[in-house]
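Q: Convert this sequence to structure tokens.
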Amino acid sequence: MSWSRTGRSPRAQSGVQSGNLIQRKNNLGISEMQVMALPAWYCARTQPKHEHIAAAGLSRNCGFEVFHPRLRMERATQRGVVRVVEPLFPGYLFVRCLGKGLNDVRYSIGISGLVHFGMRIATVPDPVVDELKSCFQSQEAMAVEDHMYEGAEVTVAEGPFIGVHGIVVRLLPARRRVQILLDFLGRATLTEVDRKSVSVENTTLADLMPALAISRRAMAA
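A:
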């Protein structure tokens, strides 16, 4: 029988490796430090399109403080431009609890897991959440206008070009209209439409930050 450099038999070495694997899996759960820690903010992943359900479950059933920032904005649909409410961070929300409450978060309705780095469940610093919360007056969705600019990709939601994608060429604020370049039937077509008949595509958090900053200054005034 051959022995390893550690002086253990192959069977004993295999048992140690299995034990280490089990320990590593257990470490992905709740550490003793997290159980003893003060309440902290954690970032939870939600099931697709279940952010509001997960937030309600954590707040109502578990009694945890939940921060789920949402925005009310315009989107192009087959019915025209409509107002919709969308999460600021799709698929994620913030929840504040003790470390011993993480299992309650993990198995709550609408939750798919907790954000972690390696074997450590990540916490979100209080100042980061406080900074975001300062942009919102309440739990209600905040109205944000699309950031229309020359070169923006838009979708037409009304009229004969409904559903067609284009690029903003020129803004006409005095008439509340925009000139857009469309790819219609394989040809580049320049047309002028009402500002409210188009919506900006691919809006990202970076695009929305100027609007959030303006909202925060307005509340502080």
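Helices lie at 10-27, 32-36, 51-60, 102-106, 126-133, 205-220.
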